[in-house]
Q: What sequence folds into this?
């Protein structure tokens, strides 16, 4: 298949795989699915319902919801009419949602439940273009005239479709590759979000390029839990699955991903590094709290796995004693780890932020491959990715088909091709700043290609720390190194225009509290615990242990322990779990300054 629009791709898949499972949701304690044929009919009915309510080509419709079947139905229905959708993170506050809906001029919004509806009710008076709200569940009592339920729209569609055979198919086919598909507002670690315009061709060129790099087919099952509001999950965990005839199961929540993996038994999953860090942390915690024999077996198995991994990565066949030991290690250690992922996993895909090289190697030693890729919202998103038979940990892989990449003189990564956005909505100045006259998109990331053609990301250009002594430091790799400690949960480095590197550290409190109990350290609460000299020395020792290969100027000289995690609710994290450094600095500026006095 080589459709140039999402509509064309969806129609082709439904025609080819009409009896296969498309979407799966957990209902009454059990996962149940609908076929591609059923999904096509639901999209058609919903699209006709939207048509009867005045939605047509060029209109903008927002979606404010967590991942679920109705999200996909709404998205595909909107696109089939030639309209543009604007996904909104359900974690955003009303004022943030207001900015997005006002900026894109949404005439309609689809909301998940009464909680999201309450946000819209709060800001509706400030949105003169917003005339209709559709709720995925039942309408609450006393609902306003402009509110409709998902079921009501479906019924409207069925009525509208009577006597209008071919209308839906004709509308879907009339959409061209260069037509707008979506406006995605970047969550942004600084400043106001910008609306990235992506076309049908942007998405589909990237879908085919990514499928050429990583094989996905109708036998695959994906577990979806990253927000569909983010381009990474939307393309890699949704559109690629649709283009392949694969099944998508929706996780109940971020907190149930572990249980849902066991239930769904996914063959592949898309995630940001935070999930792998959490899994890694839990495994190490369980081992360290176990018996000395358990620890001995685990670390022996890990060493065998590393040795075997080096051989297989180099394309060598396992033989003799190493093959025998790998089999024993697999039975005693690694099979249990794979069982936690459902037992059917072919590979993970990681993106959205840098993955620690150590964590990638750890999972590979256990027989689980994490393929790291790289891209941005503005690039639809994939620029590079590691392949099943051609990968290197610590890199983001090789350039995908049809995409050009070059490194500018200052080390910035530039890219050009069919994956590049149409521009920023209502923001020609920002568009001109991002895309130069030769059509190169300036990513804002610093990187380099190694001698084998793998791209290595150093850091964000704006994140580079330049000390007062003139030393350039990329904080990302150092932060990724430090969070491999079981006593360090989150870390943010500081040092720009200062004479040494310092850090704000959120400890791994469960392990810290366990350590305090074992050492007889008394404390009243977490605020009290992090003030203990013994705890400071413990974390200091971990930093020293992990910094052996760093240059002296790259080592953390001072740090502050914080009493609670950075969170989306607290404003310190973006919806894609990146640290908003400006927010954190503003909150803890006084404590930071004490380290430099």
A:
């Amino acid at each position: 298949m080589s459709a140039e629009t999402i509509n064309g791709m969806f129609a082709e898949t439904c025609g080819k795989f009409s009896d296969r499972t498309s979407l799966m949701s957990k209902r009454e304690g059990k996962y149940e699915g609908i076929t591609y044929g059923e999904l096509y009919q639901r999209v058609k009915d919903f699209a006709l319902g939207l048509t009867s309510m005045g939605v047509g080509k060029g209109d903008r419709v927002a979606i404010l919801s967590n991942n679920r079947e109705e999200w996909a139905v709404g998205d595909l229905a909107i696109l089939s009419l030639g309209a543009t959708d604007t996904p909104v993170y359900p974690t955003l506050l009303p004022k943030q949602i207001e900015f997005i809906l006002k900026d894109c001029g949404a005439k309609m919004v689809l909301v998940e439940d009464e909680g999201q509806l309450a946000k819209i009710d709060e800001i509706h008076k400030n949105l003169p273009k917003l005339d209709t709200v559709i709720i995925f569940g039942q309408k609450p009592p006393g609902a306003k005239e402009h509110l409709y339920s998902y079921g009501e729209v479906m019924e409207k569609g069925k009525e509208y479709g009577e006597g209008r055979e071919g209308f839906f198919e004709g509308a879907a086919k009339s959409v061209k590759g260069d037509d707008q598909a979506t406006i995605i507002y970047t969550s942004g670690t600084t400043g106001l979000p910008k609306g990235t315009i992506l076309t049908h061709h942007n998405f589909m060129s990237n879908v085919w390029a990514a499928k050429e790099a990583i094989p996905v087919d109708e036998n695959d099952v994906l577990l979806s839990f990253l927000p569909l509001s983010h381009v990474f999950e939307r393309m890699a965990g949704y559109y690629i699955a649709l283009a392949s005839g694969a099944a998508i199961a929706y996780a109940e929540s971020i907190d149930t991903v572990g249980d849902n993996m066991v239930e769904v038994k996914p063959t592949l999953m898309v995630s940001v590094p935070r999930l792998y860090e959490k899994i890694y942390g839990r495994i190490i915690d369980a081992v360290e709290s176990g018996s000395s024999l358990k620890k001995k077996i685990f670390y022996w198995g890990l060493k065998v796995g590393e040795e075997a991994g080096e051989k297989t990565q180099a394309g060598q066949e396992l033989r003799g004693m190493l093959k025998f030991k790998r089999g024993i290690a697999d039975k005693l250690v690694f099979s249990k780890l794979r069982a936690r992922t459902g037992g059917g996993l072919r590979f993970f895909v990681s993106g959205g932020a840098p993955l620690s090289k150590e964590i990638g190697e750890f999972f590979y030693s256990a027989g689980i491959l994490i393929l790291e890729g790289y891209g941005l919202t503005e690039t639809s998103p994939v620029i590079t990715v590691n392949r099943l038979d051609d990968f290197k940990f610590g890199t983001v892989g090789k350039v995908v088909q049809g995409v050009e990449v070059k490194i500018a003189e200052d080390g910035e990564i530039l890219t050009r091709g069919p994956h590049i956005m149409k521009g920023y909505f209502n923001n020609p100045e920002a568009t001109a700043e991002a895309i130069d006259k030769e059509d190169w998109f300036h990513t804002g990331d610093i990187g380099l290609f190694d001698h084998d053609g793998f791209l290595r990301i150093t850091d964000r250009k704006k994140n580079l720390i330049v000390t007062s002594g003139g030393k350039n430091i990329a904080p990302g790799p150092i932060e990724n190194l430090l969070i491999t400690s079981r006593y360090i949960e989150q870390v943010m480095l500081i040092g720009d225009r200062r004479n040494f590197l310092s850090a704000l550290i959120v400890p791994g409190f469960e392990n810290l509290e366990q350590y305090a109990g074992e050492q007889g350290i008394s404390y009243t609460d977490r605020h009290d615990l992090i003030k203990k000299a013994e705890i400071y020395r413990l974390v200091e020792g971990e930093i020293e242990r992990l910094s052996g290969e760093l240059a002296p100027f790259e080592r953390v000289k001072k740090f502050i322990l914080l009493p609670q995690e950075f969170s989306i609710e607290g404003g310190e994290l973006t919806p894609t779990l990146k640290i908003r450094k400006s927010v954190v600095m503003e909150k803890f500026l006084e404590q930071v300054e004490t380290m430099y006095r």
Q: What stands out?
A: The mean pLDDT is 93. The radius of gyration is 25 Å.
